[in-house]
Amino acid sequence: MNILQVFQSVSLATIAILVFSSLFLYLLSKRKQKHLLPPSPPSLPVVGHLHHLGPLIHQSFHNLSTRYGPLIYLRLGSIPCVVVSTPELASDFLKTNDLAFGSRTQSLAIKHITYGVAFAFARSGPYWSFIKKMATVEFLGNQNLDHFLPIRSLEIQELLRTLMEKAKLQESVNLTQELFKLTNNVICQMLTGMRCLGAKSEADEVKNLVREITKIFGEFNVSDFIWFCKNIDFKGFKTRYTETHERYDALIEKIISEREIKRRRETLKEESLGRDCLDILLDILEDGKAEIKITKDHIKALILDFFIAGTDTVATAIEWTLAELIKNPNVLKEAQREIDQVIGDDRLVEESDSPKLPYMHAIIKESLRLHPPIPMVNRQSIENVTIHGYDIPAGTMLFVNTWSIGRNPEYWENPLEFNPCRFLEGSTIDVIGQNYRFLPFGTGRRMCPGIKFSMRELQVVVARLVQCFEWNVKEALNMDEQPGLAVPMAEDLVCFPSVRGNIQKMITSS
Ligand code: HEM
């Protein structure tokens, strides 16, 4: 939202009073400031550095860093921030000071929609550690992922069928929408056991809500940054997120109640493996001896956390990878050659084939380097720290610009070239957060717990799209980005698939 447009919606008299009082407080705070802060671009009273930011914030930070250096201090309204844009600094902040940066800031909208108890935004502590362990080891651990393999296979097969139909009719397909449907259906079943049926079902309402909430989470709201705007409902944003929360609450209440009735009937608790997330969480809720007491609000917030974190991110990663393959036909041919040689043409690629497809693995990494779905690792400090001689006060927002690091010629040769080979030939760089040049899933204690799940889903979907189809587009692809919680392509990816080889037989027999 344009700051000027925002100001136009409030009466001029009120603005004048508030601006003058803020200016006074700003000057007062400057006089009191004794901290040595990192370099900073010129700022304005009240808005601080907000006027430097465009809609794609990671790109604005990247541009500022090229002028003011790899460690900069910004004040977004009244919120202090530091932006970090080199692997060395990323390591200083995220490894050496991992504990100090153990929290995240949450917007007013996120706080309201997630009952004030979102896990992904919680401060590190006993509740966060307990849920992190549950998420990493149990819900998204290897055993559960194996158990949910048939769900992923079925959903991917559905996608292939849709594409095959389109290919037969020589029609275009909106791959962006199809991929969102795929990832949403998979995560929806892993969380609540429900599948989107295409009719007006609860799962469809979930899909619509996830889409709306993801949009809300990614929107810039001036009330988050300028303290005297906190209670102003700019452009009806507050009304929108309040209503969306109410819709989500009604739906999830119903889903939980139905599950509680089912559990009483079927004593589902006896099954120890392959439970959906709702069952795992209800077990914890009902367990009088659980290490941590959780409430129904925690369950509702956690289900939403995973929905939001697990839908757009994976869909966006697949979308960018396919776009790069279409733009780079030589890479696509090489990937098809690898699959044809290793798998042949009488069966589809399976998740378990991944170790045999190093070129495909390198393609996924190369796509995550250029297009990390979450372009910045965002944290908040919980104590004062001194880094490189600079004083970073408690409560400072940290942005590690992984997007910018991935495109820096000091760390990557010809960084804008899509060249998967850079991840082959002796490269030891992986996605697991140990090399600070490449942090698509973050690093350290707050690292993404969905990494194994995402890599499994990402690789098999891209491999099957490559194995089964040739991809054509009408016009050159627009590789611009769109703002959002994950950063998708600016325009939906619309393509014309055409069937390769034996695909019809393979899809129907799989
Ligand atoms: C391509 C897919 C994905 C990417 C690129 C991605 C990326 C990230 C990143 C960069 C972070 C911040 C890490 C940090 O602060 O160090 C994160 C956190 C998180 N992700 Fe993912 N993610 C993906 C998929 C998923 C999935 C599928 C789930 C769950 C179903 C998930 C759940 C979470 C959660 C709960 C957090 C917060 C963890 C915490 O604060 O401790 N993510 N993700």
TrEMBL record:
InterPro entries listed in its UniProt record: Cyt_P450 (IPR001128), Cyt_P450_CS (IPR017972), Cyt_P450_E_grp-I (IPR002401), Cyt_P450_sf (IPR036396)
Keyword match Coiled coil: no
Bilayer-spanning residue ranges: 6-28
Record's keyword terms, sorted: Heme, Iron, Membrane, Metal-binding, Monooxygenase, Oxidoreductase, Transmembrane, Transmembrane helix
Sites where the protein binds heme: 448
GO molecular function: heme binding; iron ion binding; monooxygenase activity; oxidoreductase activity, acting on paired donors, with incorporation or reduction of molecular oxygen
Cofactor(s) for this UniProt protein: heme
Top-level lineage group: Eukaryota
Single GO cellular component term: membrane
BP terms from Gene Ontology: terpenoid biosynthetic process
Cellular localization per UniProt: Membrane
Family per similarity comment: Belongs to the cytochrome P450 family.
Protein name: Cytochrome P450
Organism of derivation: Tanacetum cinerariifolium (Dalmatian daisy)
